[in-house]
Design brief:
This protein has 209 residues and is an alpha/beta fold. The protein is built from six helices and 15 strands. It has one domain: 3-Layer(aba) Sandwich (Rossmann fold), CATH 3.40.50. The strands form four sheets. Strands 1, 4, 5, 6, 7, 8, 10 and 12 form an eight-stranded mixed β-sheet that branches.
Length: 209
C-alpha cells in the first residue's frame, strides 16, 4: 500500500493558511500555489537518483553528484494542476511535462477526459502527478490509469490538500502510488467539496469565479 506523507513544515503550513483565506487575491493565490509546490517538491524529491559527473573547479578536477533530469516527468491535471508546474520546474528545470485534461461531471462527480498528452518515454521516468486538491479521488485515479496505460510505473501523486475519502479511493485504485500532501482535511460536503478546503482551486488560480 502506498504511503501518505503530510508536510508539516512551518513555511508550508503558513502559506497554506493564507491560501485558504477567501480574501486572498487571485495574484497572491497563484504565487502561493507556486511557492508551496516548490517547498513540497523539495521534500518529495529527496530520493531522486544522482549520478557522478566529473567537472573542473577553479582549483582542480572533481567528481560531483548531479541529478539525472531526464529521469523525471511531471503531469499536471488540467487546469488547476498547471498552477503547481512552475514551482517544480524552478527546482528541476529539465523535467518533461505531460498534461491530462479532466473535468468533474457536476451531476455524477465522475471524471471525464478531454485531453491526454504524455512524454513518449514515460515508462522510464519517475512521474509526479499534480493537482492542488484530492477530493473524491476520481480524477487522480483516472489520470494515473492513463499514465499506467502508457507504460508509467513509478508514480507519485502530489497535492496541497486532500480529503480522507479521496485518499481512500486513490489508494484502493492504485495501492502502489505514494501521496504527498500539505494537509489532510476533515471530509467532503454534500457537493463533494473539501471541508474546510479552499474553494475551487482552478477558479481561484485563474479568476474565473
Amino acid at each position: 500500500m502506498g504511503d501518505v506523507y503530510v508536510f508539516d513544515h512551518p513555511l508550508i503550513q503558513h502559506k497554506l493558511g493564507i491560501l485558504r483565506d477567501k480574501n486572498t487575491s487571485t495574484k497572491d493565490f497563484r504565487e502561493l500555489v507556486k511557492e508551496i509546490s516548490m517547498l513540497m517538491a523539495f521534500e518529495a524529491t529527496h530520493n531522486l537518483p544522482l549520478k557522478d559527473k566529473e567537472i573542473e573547479t577553479p582549483i582542480c578536477k572533481a567528481t560531483v553528484k548531479m541529478l539525472d533530469g531526464e529521469d523525471i516527468a511531471i503531469v499536471p491535471i488540467l487546469r488547476a494542476g498547471l498552477g503547481m508546474v512552475d514551482g517544480i520546474q524552478a527546482l528541476v528545470p529539465n523535467v518533461k511535462v505531460g498534461h491530462i485534461g479532466l473535468y468533474r461531471d457536476p451531476e455524477t462527480h465522475l471524471p471525464v477526459e478531454y485531453y491526454c498528452k504524455l512524454p513518449s518515454d514515460i515508462a522510464s521516468r519517475e512521474v509526479f502527478v499534480l493537482d492542488p486538491m484530492l477530493a473524491t479521488g476520481g480524477s487522480a485515479a483516472a489520470a494515473i490509469d492513463f499514465i499506467k496505460a502508457e507504460g508509467g510505473k513509478k508514480i507519485i501523486f502530489m497535492c496541497l490538500i486532500a480529503a480522507p475519502e479521496g485518499i481512500e479511493v486513490l489508494h484502493k485504485a492504485h495501492p502502489d502510488v505514494d501521496i504527498f500532501i500539505a494537509s489532510k482535511d476533515s471530509h467532503l460536503n454534500e457537493h463533494a467539496y473539501i471541508v474546510p478546503g479552499l474553494g475551487d482551486a482552478g477558479d481561484r488560480l485563474y479568476g474565473t469565479k
